[in-house]
């Protein structure tokens, strides 16, 4: 049976496929890269954009939602933005072109375009699976990014901030990062856009070598007409620790995938997600975490604030392989629904083949407690401020887990800005 | 200062009438005790004074300094100086107690057109007030009322009352869940707030609290009405003979 042949192409599919023949001559890469690009666009041609009939896209019918593809615009470049944390080492990409990178001891930055030209990055362009739309689009069109190597044993004092700026137009970038053995670093992936119509994709690859500890923050602040596809792939070595913190605070149509493989014994993965959803936006966080050896742990906590007619999705899949005994994995998704027209779909899944594990998941949806609101107002706090305080409290519980005061304050500022714009 | 006139009120959701023609007058400087058996409408009265939306006033009026407050929301009433110490203070996860105090104090100051308090001045005031109530400052770093014992919650209420300096204090069963030591500390905190320009309404089931906060007037609430008023000896009579005698007299 072939389910892909019958549907006519949507305007977005046509635009994505047609643009390739126009762009291909200008895309960097050797013959291996060209083959990888070609394979990716062929897959897209055959499968088209995923509809709700594709299970992994069931709650985000991309074929229907993605109506208009912002065209490439050579003039859409912009200057790097001030980093989230002052003093960070910044490596920026704007409109699909790597600009400048700062300097830090133990860190090597290379432009991804160079690794496409010499072909060393070609194997990494392979897509994950047949439903890997983000991998397909990005492999076909990727132009640049930063390849980052953190030396074994390096403990970075200042955070690294990888900026992907797409004010308008279209761009596709990658950030491959290797954190060496026993390295320690905080990395901020800044997905930033303006008010113009934009379409971008960004894929990060993170290898956390044995004993390394990484805090990675994805901060997404896009405008109301911006479509973004993000994918974060990580591999954890022995005793490696990764805390991934995702903050979605803007964008018309967003899908952020997270795929983590705990493949070293004693490794630990922590996901904390904050989705601040307003307007008529659609935001999807889809995660798979694989526990494939003994004694690994993971915890995922996602908190969502939904206003207006916004819609959010969290799909979380924990896979525990047969040999992965003593796995401890927990997942929670809590939503604060502030409007009658908002919606949040949570789909937690456990796929467990080992028999000696501790795994669990839970999802809640709530409104602001009238009791709490009354209590705060009875102390003279006006209603709007009291509501803001309660929403902030709901999210701040997760932010405060970061235990880095500068980082906590910076993220709380972003939360307050969002609340004052959407409260 | 407080004038409640022929107040009728019901539960908004199901229409059950709780307050049925209540009259009460409390002057500035006065400490009035409201006593009554369970289900007489004591807590409902406190919520209605604070402006809780779950109750609907169907008749009568509540005047505060001569003006009706029925059209004001809870925050507006609080800004005018009305304070309710809750029988069951809410636990609010994620809001640090200190942060809450700062926001509440400054919201009221803004409302009165005063400058916001700077952190050092705020800390100084909180420290002083907490000390008088034998409260540990470490507690104030915790989320509001979360994990506080019954006694700690009541102390936290009185702490807020001290810091917000209201003009009309309504204490709803502040004695419930307190051991004798905590009761003394809380009562001393309340007594320290007695002043000629402040009225205090103490709602309680038992006379015990009134040994420590000695009232100027005592009012017995039954089936949503004040059925008897008197001085502090009325409370002693209730303690000795129970509510049945007075209810019988009024019937």
From TrEMBL, chain A:
Domain SUF system FeS cluster assembly SufBD core residues, every copy: 172-394
GO biological process, one term: iron-sulfur cluster assembly
SUPFAM superfamilies tied to this protein: Stabilizer of iron transporter SufD
InterPro entries found in the cross-reference section: Fe-S_cluster_assembly_SufBD, SUF_FeS_clus_asmbl_SufBD_core, SUF_FeS_clus_asmbl_SufBD_sf, SUF_FeS_clus_asmbl_SufD
Protein name: Fe-S cluster assembly protein SufD
Species assigned in the record: Phyllobacterium phragmitis
Automatic annotation (TrEMBL), chain B:
InterPro entries the UniProt entry points to: AAA+_ATPase, ABC_transporter-like_ATP-bd, FeS-cluster_ATPase_SufC, P-loop_NTPase
Domain ABC transporter intervals: 2-248
UniProt xrefs under Gene3D superfamilies: P-loop containing nucleotide triphosphate hydrolases
Keyword Nucleotide-binding in annotation: yes
CDD domains documented for this protein: ABC_FeS_Assembly
SMART domains: AAA
Record keyword ATP-binding present: yes
Keywords assigned by UniProt, alphabetized: ATP-binding, Nucleotide-binding
GO terms assigned for molecular function: ATP binding; ATP hydrolysis activity
Family: Belongs to the ABC transporter superfamily. Ycf16 family.
PANTHER family: ABC TRANSPORTER I FAMILY MEMBER 6, CHLOROPLASTIC
Protein name as catalogued: Fe-S cluster assembly ATPase SufC
Protein's organism: Phyllobacterium phragmitis
Gene, per the UniProt record: sufC
């Amino acid at each position: 049976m072939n389910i892909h042949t019958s549907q006519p192409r949507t305007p977005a599919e046509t635009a994505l496929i047609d643009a390739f023949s126009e762009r291909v001559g200008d895309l960097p890469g050797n013959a291996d890269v060209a083959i990888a690009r070609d394979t990716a666009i062929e897959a897209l041609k055959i499968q088209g954009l995923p509809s709700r009939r594709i299970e992994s896209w069931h709650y985000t019918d991309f074929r229907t939602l993605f109506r208009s593809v912002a065209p490439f615009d050579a003039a859409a470049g912009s200057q790097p933005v001030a980093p989230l944390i002052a003093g960070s080492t910044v490596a920026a990409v704007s409109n699909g072109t790597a600009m400048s990178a700062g300097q830090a001891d133990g860190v090597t930055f290379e432009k991804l375009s160079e690794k496409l030209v010499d072909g060393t990055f070609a194997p990494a362009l392979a897509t994950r699976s047949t439903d890997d739309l983000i991998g397909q689009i990005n492999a076909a069109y990727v132009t640049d990014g930063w390849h980052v190597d953190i030396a074994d044993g390096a403990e970075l004092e200042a955070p690294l901030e990888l900026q992907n700026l797409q004010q308008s137009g279209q761009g596709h970038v990658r950030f491959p990062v290797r954190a060496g053995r026993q390295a320690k670093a905080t990395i901020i992936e800044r997905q930033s856009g303006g008010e113009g119509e934009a379409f971008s994709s960004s894929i990060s690859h993170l290898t956390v070598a044995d004993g390394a500890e990484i805090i990675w923050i994805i901060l997404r602040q896009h405008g109301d007409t911006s479509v973004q596809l993000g994918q974060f792939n990580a591999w954890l070595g022995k005793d490696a620790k990764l805390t991934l913190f995702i903050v979605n605070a803007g964008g018309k149509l967003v899908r952020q995938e997270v795929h983590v493989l705990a493949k070293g014994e004693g490794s630990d993965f922590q996901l904390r997600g904050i989705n601040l959803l307003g307007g008529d936006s659609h935001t999807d966080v889809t995660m798979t975490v694989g526990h494939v050896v003994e004694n690994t742990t993971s915890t995922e906590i996602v908190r969502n604030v939904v206003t207006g007619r916004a819609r959010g999705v969290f799909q979380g899949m924990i896979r525990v392989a047969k040999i992965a005994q003593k796995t401890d994995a927990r997942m929670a998704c809590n939503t604060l629904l502030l409007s009658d027209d908002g919606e949040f779909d949570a789909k937690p899944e456990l796929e467990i083949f080992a028999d000696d594990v501790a795994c669990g998941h839970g999802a809640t949806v709530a409104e602001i407690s009238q009791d709490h609101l009354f209590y705060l107002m009875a102390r003279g706090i006006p209603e709007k401020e009291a509501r803001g305080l309660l929403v902030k409290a709901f999210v701040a519980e997760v932010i405060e887990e970061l235990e880095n005061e500068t980082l906590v304050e910076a993220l709380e500022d972003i939360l307050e800005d969002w609340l004052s714009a959407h409260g | 200062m407080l004038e409640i006139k022929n107040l009728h009120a019901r539960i908004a959701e199901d229409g059950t009438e709780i307050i049925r023609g209540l009259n009460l007058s409390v002057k500035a400087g006065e400490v009035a005790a409201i006593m009554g058996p369970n289900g007489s409408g004591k807590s409902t009265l406190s919520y209605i004074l604070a402006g809780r939306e779950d109750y609907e006033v169907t008749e009568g009026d509540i005047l505060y300094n001569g003006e009706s407050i029925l059209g004001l929301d809870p925050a507006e009433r609080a800004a005018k100086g009305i304070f309710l110490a809750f029988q069951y203070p809410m636990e609010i996860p994620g809001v640090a107690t200190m942060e809450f105090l700062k926001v509440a104090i400054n919201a009221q100051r803004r409302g009165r057109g005063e400058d916001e308090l700077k952190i050092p001045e705020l800390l100084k005031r909180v420290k002083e007030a907490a000390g008088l109530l034998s409260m540990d400052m470490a507690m104030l770093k915790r989320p509001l009322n979360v994990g506080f014992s019954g006694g700690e919650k009541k102390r936290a209420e009185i702490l807020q009352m001290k810091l917000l300096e209201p003009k009309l204090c309504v204490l709803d069963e502040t004695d419930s869940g307190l051991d004798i030591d905590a009761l003394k500390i809380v009562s001393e905190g309340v007594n320290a707030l007695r002043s000629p320009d402040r009225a205090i309404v103490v709602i309680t089931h038992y006379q015990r609290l009134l040994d420590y906060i000695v009232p100027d007037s005592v009012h017995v609430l039954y089936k949503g009405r004040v059925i008897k008023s008197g001085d502090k000896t009325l409370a002693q009579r209730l303690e000795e003979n129970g509510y049945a005698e007075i209810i019988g007299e009024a019937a």
